[in-house]
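Thread title: Can someone regenerate the structure for this chain?

I was given the following input by a collaborator and told the matching structure tokens would be attached. They weren't. Posting the sequence so someone can regenerate them.
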Amino acid sequence: MPGTWTVTSGAVSIYTFTAPEDGWLVTSHVVELPSQLLGVDAQYTLPYAREIVRYTYELRKPLTRLYVTHYHPDHLLGAVAFNAPLFPLDSVAEKITTAGDRVALEEHEKVGDDIPVRARQPDHSIGEGKEIIDGVRIEHRRLHGAETEDALAIALPDTGAIIAQDLVYNRVHPFLGERRFESWRSALKQYRDLPFDIVLPGHGLPGDEALYDRVIDYLIFAERAFERSATAAAFKRRIVKRYPSYGGANVIDHQLRFLFR
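Best answer:
Regenerated them for you:
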């Protein structure tokens, strides 16, 4: 089943690929600058990563960077399909170097050849701050203590857009395995106040500022459900009953081994 492409137009164009359910509804983004392309996140499986690579060829500009916003396998493992330097935060680069190959092998054993046996290693690291690339303003933001310990968010002020990735999910079950309910909500409230009308999530279709409050509400419910659930099965029943239309069943199942161990 193919993924979905969505185009956000402004001072620059952002092409967003959302994988189908078997790809965990992960989003990757291609930012088109005047003479080059920037990629953001690499997908979970190789077939969907290759779909993005093919799309970049059609844009007829070189892909000069592939950002990986955090080390989770669904955003990292497809990176081996890309022929562009890999740019994570320095702290994320350390995690990829330390744990990337182990995570790749674990996922390969579960899924098969659609997952590489080794993770792509970083070529460079990126720090928090502002940069002008090809005449376009870009802000690299270090997001601490939300879904995971450290993650990269990329803002494009001239387009009014922020690539928030796994800070927000759009009608997809968030990964709660690191149990950062309170600090994640705090980060959502902080980012909700930023001047960006276009919010690009890490899972699901592009949206707007309403995504922040929707994820906050989800986290409040999920934390209470977790506290009241003696077993993984009980927790999953509560979540699915409350959010029956949400995608990302694989995300729920993946996180249970971290929440109930």
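The two ends are 34 Å apart (CA to CA).
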